[in-house]
Every structure is written in C-alpha cells, then in structure tokens.
Amino acid sequence: MAKVSEKLREAVAQPYCLNGHKLYVEVSVGISVYSADGDHVESLRKNAEIAMYVAKETREGYRCFTEALNHNALERMRLESCVRTALQEN
C-alpha cells in the first residue's frame, strides 16, 4: 500500500499548466486495512480519513491508521468542543 501511495504521489508531482499558470497537486492518502482497522465499510472509511488528515498535517503523503491516531482525533474533538463551549459561555 505504501508503494501504491508513493507511485500516486510521483504521478501527480509534476506541475500542471492551466491558462498559463503552473498548478501543483499534492496527494495525501489515508490507509486502513480490513479487518485489522474495521469490519465495515464505514469504519474503514472513517479510519482511513483520520489517517489521511494526519498525512496532510505532517505532509508525509500517506499514513496508515493506528489506534493512537484515533485516540488523538477523539481528544482533539473533545478539546475543540470544550473551547467552543467556553467561548459561548464567556
């Protein structure tokens, strides 16, 4: 899977010209594996999405899902919720 992700990144690494402008495309891939990371399409998609956001943040290109990523994502959502509540309540 890592090789496929790297080949995909290489395939789009060259700049594209559109109306005289150079455009650069970056690929971020999140990987989740059946059944280690989920038994259903929705859980696999959610876990791959979590991994993809980490790949984007770290600019690594791809990331495989781990439970630690899930824990970090849940903690971030909890903190964001607390901040919103605190701001609303002053």
TrEMBL record:
Q: Which domain of life is it from?
A: Bacteria
* Every GGDEF domain range: 1-68
Q: SUPFAM superfamilies, alphabetically?
A: Nucleotide cyclase
Name of the protein in question: GGDEF domain-containing protein
InterPro entries under this entry?
A: DGC-Regulatory_Protein, GGDEF_dom, Nucleotide_cyclase, Rev_trsase/Diguanyl_cyclase
Record's PANTHER family?
Answer: DIGUANYLATE CYCLASE DGCT-RELATED (PTHR46663), SLL0267 PROTEIN (PTHR46663:SF3)
